[in-house]
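Thread: Flavin prenyltransferase UbiX, structure

OP (GT): Posting the sequence first so everyone is looking at the same thing. Length is 188 residues per the record. Can we get the structure tokens written out before standup tomorrow? I want them in the notebook alongside the other entries.
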Amino acid sequence: MIKKKLIVAITGASGSVYAKVLFDELAKLKDQIEAVGVVMSDNAKEVWEFELGNQNYSNYNFTFYSKNDFNAPFASGSAKYDTMIIIPCSMGTLGRIAHGISNDLISRAADVVLKERRKLIAVVRDTPFSLIHINNMKAVTEAGGIICPANPSFYSLPKSIEEVAGTVVSRVLDLAGFEQESYRWQEK
């Protein structure tokens, strides 16, 4: 099995629980991972602390980079990070990516992933969408990205907020190509 080199970006959109559940699941999938590079916006850290009541994002055994560290390996396509997940993805971040504005490490990494024809998964978490949002999603999709709205499913009968978030994270991990145990519709 070829191990994955993964970029995880967390922006200031509401939905820090999605990032936390993703981190928990990635820790379980470590045998499928070569590297996880994480970059968080300042707002992402504030929202995490507000919504989850802690700073536990720093407790995970991943490599964290500052939002302006353009020396991070995934700021260049030569590092061959194969997948980038932005979870949650703010509409501001999506807009910058859609228009090629690389003003921080998150938007630069997304630009690199798209130009190298690798996998970009943007977990947008906003509602309702304006026409600007829809056009930005269209532009990112046309550039090769995947828009995966943070719309949970309920047919697995989740019992907690983390289980609800897990329905989205499971879909994201499937899109990223991970082998995982997950609820599958009409499968036993």
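GT: Both are above now. Quick notes for whoever picks this up: The radius of gyration is 16 Å. The longest helix spans residues 161-176.
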